[in-house]
Amino acid sequence: MMEVAEPMKVEVPRLSDLLTRDPYLTKYEKEIRRRYGCFKKLVDQIDQAEGGMEKFSRGYETFGLHVNPDNSVTCVEWAPMAQGLFLKGDFNGWNKLSHPFKKLEYGKWEISLPANPDGSCPIKHTSRVKIGVMMSLDQISLLTPKDMMVDRLCPWASYVVQPPKTEGLAYHHHFWNPPPEERYSFKHPRPDKPISLKVYECHIGIGTDQLKVGTYKEFSRNVLPRIVKLGYNAIQVMAIMEHAYYASFGYQVTSFFAASSRYGTPEELKEMIDTAHSMGLFVLLDVVHSHASKNVLDGLNEFDGSDSCYFHGGSRGTHSLWDSRLFNYSNWEVLRFLLSNLRWYLEEYRFDGFRMCLECQPCVGQLKKVVLALIIGWEWQSLITGSNFLKKKPMMTGIWEVFATRWRIGATWKKLLHTQSHMIRLL
């Protein structure tokens, strides 16, 4: 655990302004300094080990399945407790052992597939793929021999689809690699930063008067014009990250990099956001990084066969009220995954900012992750971030509002109330 030897010697920018404005926090000065010191240490470590937040938050450019310029395919995964990884799918007739990954350092695995003899990509667009995870003897002690290898979805999958009822309930990863003519090209710039926000909270699936799940195209055509007419200048879109359990309203995410296929394709979501921008609307993404679905076959849970991997092991990694898993924010690769997830939606889909949901009593790790997320936005002058808190103990839920210029960080603090609040900050 990262600690600070002498907290009272830690320099916190504008701390005196905070304590003057809010004397209630004076008795917590040492704790404020300690937490800021821990945070600054983490940022320094990222700078030294990864070359800065810019590179660290681009994990999606390395991890997951990628098509190279010569149409070969490379896949990198992080599965520290796995004994072996295998790629399988429609491309190899679902052969379980024909395409093994090579083990790298730090729990990472890699595989490369050459292009087909005719120069085409070996994995076809929208074809199904899975990762076979070989488990250790300890992990399979309670399982039958046939369960030594388990199927998992790539954590970085960008398109995940509900299968036909005849094929079960678990979602399938469909490799997303459309030809150039089918890729959406953005036509409109991001709107200017508004002086103040009027936010319309919305859900694509219920944005229809019909007895069905709405679509991105229908929302663009029928709902966006009405939102503008009502005088709003921003929309907060709920339930975008893929979630197998629709009734969770998007709060039990199974595939973090996949925009929900219930409403349409990734290209159709891009078109919807571009349409919103053309109308002068900011588009905020509702982000749920405080917990994740417990699903194993189509979620992050037990990805490498262990109880932990992306989450804390044991009871610490389970949210008893929501029946979900809790991330281990102290893990380097978990931070990379979640911060890269934010940048992915900023760059791939051109969302303008986030509304972040934290659990009832968020740990310091969650808050560090939120602040690191704000640093990602230093280059987007119009990035909007918001956080939602359910608070019981103020000092358990301290938050920095970070103003980042390159890699130098200044911060002020906000007093946290005991009741629910929504805080929006324009950077």
TrEMBL record:
<dbReference type="Pfam" id="PF02922">
    <property type="entry name" value="CBM_48"/>
</dbReference>
<feature type="domain" description="Glycosyl hydrolase family 13 catalytic">
    <location>
        <begin position="205"/>
        <end position="420"/>
    </location>
</feature>
<dbReference type="Pfam" id="PF00128">
    <property type="entry name" value="Alpha-amylase"/>
</dbReference>
<dbReference type="InterPro" id="IPR017853">
    <property type="entry name" value="GH"/>
</dbReference>
<dbReference type="GO" id="GO:0005978">
    <property type="term" value="P:glycogen biosynthetic process"/>
</dbReference>
<dbReference type="GO" id="GO:0005737">
    <property type="term" value="C:cytoplasm"/>
</dbReference>
<dbReference type="GO" id="GO:0004553">
    <property type="term" value="F:hydrolase activity, hydrolyzing O-glycosyl compounds"/>
</dbReference>
<dbReference type="InterPro" id="IPR013783">
    <property type="entry name" value="Ig-like_fold"/>
</dbReference>
<dbReference type="InterPro" id="IPR006047">
    <property type="entry name" value="GH13_cat_dom"/>
</dbReference>
<dbReference type="GO" id="GO:0003844">
    <property type="term" value="F:1,4-alpha-glucan branching enzyme activity"/>
</dbReference>
<dbReference type="InterPro" id="IPR004193">
    <property type="entry name" value="Glyco_hydro_13_N"/>
</dbReference>
<dbReference type="InterPro" id="IPR014756">
    <property type="entry name" value="Ig_E-set"/>
</dbReference>
<protein>
    <recommendedName>
        <fullName>Glycosyl hydrolase family 13 catalytic domain-containing protein</fullName>
    </recommendedName>
</protein>
